[in-house]
Design brief:
Organism: Exophiala dermatitidis (strain ATCC 34100 / CBS 525.76 / NIH/UT8656)
Number of strands: 0
InterPro entries: DNA_glycosylase (IPR011257), HhH-GPD_domain (IPR003265), HhH_base_excis_C (IPR023170)
Keywords: Endonuclease, Hydrolase, Nuclease
CATH class of one domain: Mainly Alpha
GO molecular function: endonuclease activity; oxidized base lesion DNA N-glycosylase activity
Distance between the termini: 121 Å
Number of helices: 18
CATH superfamily of one domain: Helix-hairpin-Helix base-excision DNA repair enzymes (C-terminal)
CATH topology of one domain: Endonuclease Iii, domain 2
Shape: elongated
CATH architecture of one domain: Orthogonal Bundle
Radius of gyration: 47 Å
Order of helices and strands: HHHHHHHHHHHHHHHHHH
Largest sheet: none
Protein name: Endonuclease III
């Protein structure tokens, strides 16, 4: 259906209304312009208006929302400028009225600063009794916390020392594994003979002489020197421990300079022995031992242990922090020339391969077990030969593979199977035994 066509009179009426409204608006604007302007607000108002620069017209926004946001932003900036100027005027007025008093207060060291919320302001120049009480309580709390921490560390050290001595006393002359049969005296003799055939005999020297070219492990007639040398040899090679010992002697002007070492402190000693590894731990242990020895005896010496029993010498060395059964046993074996079977990493590994200890045995437990099982006459030679074998034998050194060629391991396969060496190693040893039996019967 087609829309009806507007007639001429209707169109004329619409145009007449539009033009009439436009004319009325123009007349109103003209009347406003012709009204008289109000008088000027005076020079001050004019001066204030001059301070506020007119903002440049903003760029035309594309939407009403953006135009409204821009207008609000302009209004906020204008208010901020007015507020800043008002504050500056107030500050200038206050300065002019206070005069010199303002200057003296500003230069005074006791400038009052508003405290943070929730904290009471303390007058540092003339504190009240309550303020002093608060400071004292805070200081006491900090001191109490540090004292508690130090006391806890001291208790921990004492507990460790007590535990160490108790463990030694419990198994001083017996094995912690009384039902574990190996090694028997005959097995010790056999192992000693095999190792002598492989590496030659090892006999104890009649006199202990401190080496000037190597650190050694307890190789010194001075008990304190032997103890320090053994500490330097912990968890490192002979080459590294020797470097540490020689550099220490160079830094302090010779061997046995205990007073200079103690006076120099831990940091200097740590730097001197850093080539030996674990220098932070070892320097701390050595300084601690020197301090304990001097406090107890008034001299830097432990030579009185030469005349003490093996048990008493062992207990005293174990009383030092950082000294365990292995270190004390080395000093006992090499310096004091007593019968003690020291267990280092090579001895611990090879005795496990031979089935001479339970698989779960720790090194300290292994020491107690083997020291009670191995005859005294075999302890010195067997210890040195096991260490030598652990360094030279491709099958018995760390990470070595069982190729069935090591005479020592071949001799103890049966004992290994009867021990607690682990299922995989047991199967490996059983297969080797079966192979040998088959070859012999064939």
């Amino acid at each position: 259906m087609s829309r009806p066509t507007r007639t001429a009179p209707a169109m004329a009426r619409r145009i007449t209304r539009s033009s009439t409204g436009t004319t009325a608006r123009r007349q109103q604007l003209q009347a406003v312009k012709e009204q008289p302007q109000p008088p000027s607000a005076g020079p001050m108002v004019k001066q204030e208006k001059e301070k506020i620069p007119s903002a440049p017209p903003p760029p035309r926004s594309s939407t009403p929302r953006k135009r409204a946001a821009a207008a609000a932003d302009r209004e906020a900036k204008s208010r901020k400028r007015i507020k800043t100027e008002e504050e500056e005027n107030k500050l200038a007025l206050a300065t002019s009225t206070t005069g010199s008093r303002s200057t003296s207060r500003t230069n005074d060291s006791d400038v009052n600063v508003s405290p943070r919320p929730g904290r009471r302001e303390i007058n540092t120049r003339n504190p009240s009794p309550n303020d002093l009480d608060t400071k004292t309580k805070t200081k006491k709390t900090v001191t109490s916390s540090s004292a508690t921490g130090s006391a806890a560390k001291e208790v921990s050290k004492q507990q460790l020392q007590t535990k160490k001595l108790k463990s030694y006393a419990q198994f001083a002359n017996q094995s912690p594994f009384p039902d574990f049969p190996h090694p028997t005296p005959a097995e010790c003799k056999l192992a000693h003979r095999i190792l002598i055939s492989l590496h030659g005999p090892r006999t104890r020297p009649k006199e202990v002489i401190a080496s000037t070219t190597r650190a050694g492990c307890g190789d010194s007639p001075s008990v304190l020197d032997a103890l320090v040398r053994t500490i330097l040899s912990q968890n490192t090679s002979d080459v590294n421990s020797t470097r540490a010992k020689l550099n220490m002697d160079k830094v302090y002007g010779g061997s046995d300079k205990w007073e200079a070492i103690a006076a120099g402190g831990q940091a200097k000693l740590q730097e001197a022995i850093k080539s030996g590894g674990l220098s932070a731990v070892k320097s701390k242990v050595i300084i601690s031992i020197l301090n304990q020895v001097y406090e107890k005896y008034g001299v830097y010496s432990l030579d009185h242990l030469h005349s003490a029993s093996s048990e008493d010498a062992m207990r005293e060395m174990l009383s030092f922090q950082g000294v365990g059964p292995k270190t004390a046993s080395c000093v006992l074996l090499f310096c004091l020339q007593r019968e003690s079977f020291a267990v280092d990493t090579h001895v611990w590994r090879i005795t496990g391969l031979l089935g001479w200890r339970p698989k779960s045995a720790s090194r300290d437990e292994t020491y107690a077990h083997l020291d009670s099982k191995i005859p005294d006459e075999d302890k010195y030679g067997l210890h040195i030969l096991l260490v030598t074998h652990g360094k030279r034998c491709d099958e018995c050194k760390a990470g070595g593979k069982n190729l069935g060629r090591c005479e020592l391991r071949k001799a103890f396969r049966k004992a290994k199977v009867e021990g607690e060496a682990g299922d995989e190693e047991k199967i490996e040893e059983i297969e080797e035994i079966k192979k040998e039996q088959k070859e012999q019967s064939g």
